[in-house]
Amino acid sequence: MITALAGGVGAARLLTGMLRLVKQEELSVVVNTGDDIELFGLHISPDLDIVAYTLAGIVDEKKGWGIKGDSFHCLDMFRKYGQDTWFSLGDKDLATHIYRTHRLRQGKTLTEVTREICTSLGLKVNVLPMTDDRFETHVRLREGSVHFEEYFVKRQCQGNVLGVEFVGSATAKPSPEVMDAILDAEVVVVCPSNPIVSIGTILSVAGVRDALRRANARVVAVSPIVAGLPIKGPADKLMRGLGLEVSAFGVAKLYSDFLDVFVIDTLDASEKERIEKLGIKVKVTNTFMRTLKDKVALAKAVLSEQ
Ligand code: FO1
User: Fold this and answer.
1) What does the alpha-carbon distance between residue 7 and residue 47 come to, in Å, rounded to a whole number?
2) Which residues form the domain of 36?
3) Domain count of the chain?
4) Residues 123-180: pLDDT tens digits?
5) Ligand 1 pocket, CB under 6 A
């Protein structure tokens, strides 16, 4: 069994490569739900949907989220009603949020609903929300704290990050399925997602970090920072805002208490020794995933024993 810790777009690309090497039934994916947001009374789970849509082959490849070819008639009508439509929700995508909200209201857990959605999309991958409890990532700015999606999408990452808050982290628990997926895995792959508000969020769920430390699995991460920049998203802004070094080494330090192997890009080869001093084995390879071939090659580098 292979278990991956995943955020959104970057993770989904690596998972696509991994599924050319392992069977869907052999893969569990623990997904960040700190981006989950309630809009128009609907429970929206951006990263769960990005992972499910990507692995089911229906994601809008260009954007990396939403459903390819989707229309936005509902949103246009919503705008007529004076609704704030800064978060683009396509008509087919809305069906996912309506279904999820409907089933949650019927008393199902987010884990159960996610399984229903993945099964309906023909997926055999075990896609797991990191917790079934309420959990929201908020970003603290000078003018106050805002939901991560408001910071990332509505404000386009403007404003200095003064801090990150995990609302719900004091009470949120990992589901039994998440703990099993980590403790039963031969390999745990930490995908190249945002180390603060995607992987960091998963690690902040009580018991997860400890399970990774105790796990028999080989824990392998791919650096989400290459040559001081994230491949996508605001990881550099968040790390800088938290006073962390924005580099592969900076990320290695964040993961050093549970990480066995760190895969860094050839552009960061000079950081190999410094990272090895943290007691982590380092592999240097191309980590840019432009083509399917890149995704499979990186997945091979991550999963191979050497
Ligand atoms: N990202 C954007 O930059 N703009 C959007 O309007 C937007 C809408 C959206 C709708 C559904 C969904 O699942 C994801 C969506 N995303 C959008 C992506 C999302 O903000 C981020 O990719 C993740 O939350 C971070 O991994």
Assistant:
1) 6
2) 2-135+169-303
3) 1
4) 999 999 999 999 999 999 999 999 999 999 999 999 999 999 999 999 999 999 999 9
5) 7-9, 35, 46-47, 49-50, 65-66, 87-89, 93, 149, 152-153
